[in-house]
Design goal:
Distance between the termini: 40 Å
Oligomer: single chain
CATH architecture of the largest domain: 3-Layer(aba) Sandwich
Structural class: alpha/beta
Strand order of the largest sheet: 2-5-8-1-9
Amino acid sequence: MTDVPGSAADVRQALARVGYLADDAIAGVVYLAERLGKPVLVEGPAGTGKTELAKSVARMTGARLIRLQCYEGLDESKALYEWNYKKQLLRIQAQRLAESAPSGAPQAGAPQTGESQVGDSQTGDSQSLTPWDDIEADIFSEAFLLSRPLLEAIRATDPVVLLVDEVDRLEVETEALLLEVLSDYQVSIPEMGTVKATQIPMVFLTSNNTRELSEALKRRCLYLHIGYPDMDREKEIVRARVPQLGDILADQVVRIVRSLRSMDLKKRPSVSETLDWARTLLVLGAGTIDAEVLRDSLHVLLKYRTDIDRAAKELSASEGIPAGAGASDGASDGT
């Protein structure tokens, strides 16, 4: 296992030192996951820090991060392992060529008769042909195996953190590939047998809730939901990640973002987009957020034309936007 600090409070402090501002719930689940040797299923809206949590735990513990990015159509050959078919074919061809070459073949250019060529070839085939069982045992060996992220994490001898990112994008059938790994931390390879883990890696599975995951998968995991942070914590995140941003401007940023999240939008701004907006304001040299700055930078937060139009209209109607977004946004956000 990885070396996790000795209490949930210590985990929170250690994560902060590597740039991840966790709350008590996040720190507690990370601590229990290491102590119990169980995977963590992290659900929540996109861009709230689920993937970054796994990366930060790897940095905190000094472990190697192994990432499996999930997508529709992901299969065993990309998630678990596959055989190097081209190398296997080359090995078979090389074996056959070696067997077909007559022993004591004359140098190039030496005179030969048709009868002697046939005779030597037949003799070589009958006396030195390698049994197929031996060739099969050779080509289905370690030298021809291509490890993918799941198998790589199981076989690792150094501490690793396995990140299975956006697991909800997998097809239901593909989830079965994870079950053996998460149940017993082992992988069955028909040609080689069962590969068992020499150590239990820390495992994080992230989901954006695009579909319901199977009960079998959920049973094997600790559950953690990461939603949008409250205003104070989001301001703390902004100040930590964009330290050049002044305190007043950081306060405006988080208040406007919270107001946007309270609107009926197709896509609400994520924490990562909040940080992008804060960096954008620095590039623009904005000292405060007025109507012009908001109009010129709103596309960094919102990614649909209808959302941008709606937000611009509603925010421009707020009394505090031109001079200072803080007061009016705070009043308009009832969440």
